[in-house]
Amino acid sequence: MSNNLGMDVRNSPRSRCRIDSKVHYFKQEANGRVINISRSGLALELTSNLPAAAGSPVVIENADIGLLEGVVRWNYGGRIGIMFKPNSNSIAKVAAYFRNFHQEVRPVLTR
């Protein structure tokens, strides 16, 4: 799917959440929080700078889902977008998260 700017966008609907996580990028690691998730990817808000380039492989680690492998789609302004690798392991983990743990989170502050 693409938007009117010609950029690729996520096909699956996003759900807001707050899940503390770690991102492993080669030998670097950064803490962050998953701010939204879909069946195809997620967005993380990072607490420190992580110079991950688009197309680079990463591993996301958190308590609710476990380890997920993905590819960086974008990295901008302290946030990073990750598309899950399309394998049965990540599909099963994300489906289990939505079935067992997910609760939609509403923002406390509005703009």
Structural class: mainly beta
How many structural domains can be distinguished in the coordinates?
1
* Oligomeric state of shown chains: single chain
Our count of helices gives: 1
| Total strand segments | 6
Uncertain ranges: none
CATH C-level class is Mainly Beta
Give the name of the CATH superfamily.
predicted glycosyltransferase like domains
Arithmetic mean pLDDT: 82
Main sheet overview? 6 strands, antiparallel, barrel
CA-based shape:
globular
Describe this structure in words.
This protein is mainly beta and 111 residues long. It has one domain: predicted glycosyltransferase like domains (Thrombin, subunit H), CATH 2.40.10.220. 12% of the residues lie in helices and 45% in strands. It contains one helix and six strands. A six-stranded antiparallel barrel has the order 1-2-3-6-5-4. It is globular, with a radius of gyration of 13 Å. The termini are far apart. The mean pLDDT is 82. This is PilZ domain-containing protein. InterPro entries: PilZ_domain (IPR009875). Pfam families: PilZ.
